Amino acid sequence: MSIRDDRSGAADDWFIDPIIRKVIGGDFSLDNNPLAWQRDAVCSQTDPEAFFPEKGGSTRDAKKICSGCDVKQQCLDYALKNDERFGIWGGLSERERRKLKRRA
Questions:
Q1: Staple 62 to which of 25, 35, 38, 88, CB 3.0 to 4.6 Å?
Q2: Residues 77, 56: Cα–Cα separation, whole Å
Q3: Which residues contact 17 (CB under 8 A, 6 or more apart)?
Q4: pLDDT computed for residue 3 by the predictor
Q5: How many CB atoms are closer than 10 A to CB 8?
Q6: Would you list the domain boundaries of the chain?
Q7: In a 10 Å sphere around its CB, with 0-12 CB exposed, 13-18 middle and 19+ buried, how is residue 37 labelled?
């Protein structure tokens, strides 16, 4: 695995938390790994900037990508559990995740 993906300039493994990588090791193919769902995330194959739009920017493209993702629920669960404050996770913006948490 290369450090950078030549097409986009983004790291190949941009979606894996580097702190967790050091704590639990670099083998993310294990099924008991809490982040194993990220292997199958459609966003890992797209431009990460779409998932972190500028303030007031459109979330439409990211949400469209999320809509067809097999691990959308795991992604949303991760964001809610870890209080992710930025970006689109599981098809929801930070504002939408806040509303969801308030209703729960």
A1: 88
A2: 24
A3: 35
A4: 45
A5: 13
A6: 18-103
A7: middle
Q: What are the strands, taking DSSP E only, across 58-98?
A: none
Q: How many residues does the chain have?
A: 104
Residue the block writes with tokens 């300039």: 9
* pLDDT grade for 86, boundaries at 50, 70 and 90: very high
β-pair partners for 4: 11
Q: How many CA atoms lie within 13 A of 100 on its CB side?
A: 15
Task: Measure the CA–CA gap between 44 and 19, rounded to whole angstroms.
Answer: 18
Q: What is the mean pLDDT of the chain?
A: 80
Considering just the CA atoms, what is the radius of gyration of the chain in Å?
A: 14
51: three-class secondary structure by DSSP: helix
| 92/3 Cα distance (integer angstroms) | 29
Contact 59, 88 (CB under 8 A): yes
What is the phi/psi pair of residue 22, to 5°?
-70, -35
DSSP 8-state code for residue 69 = -
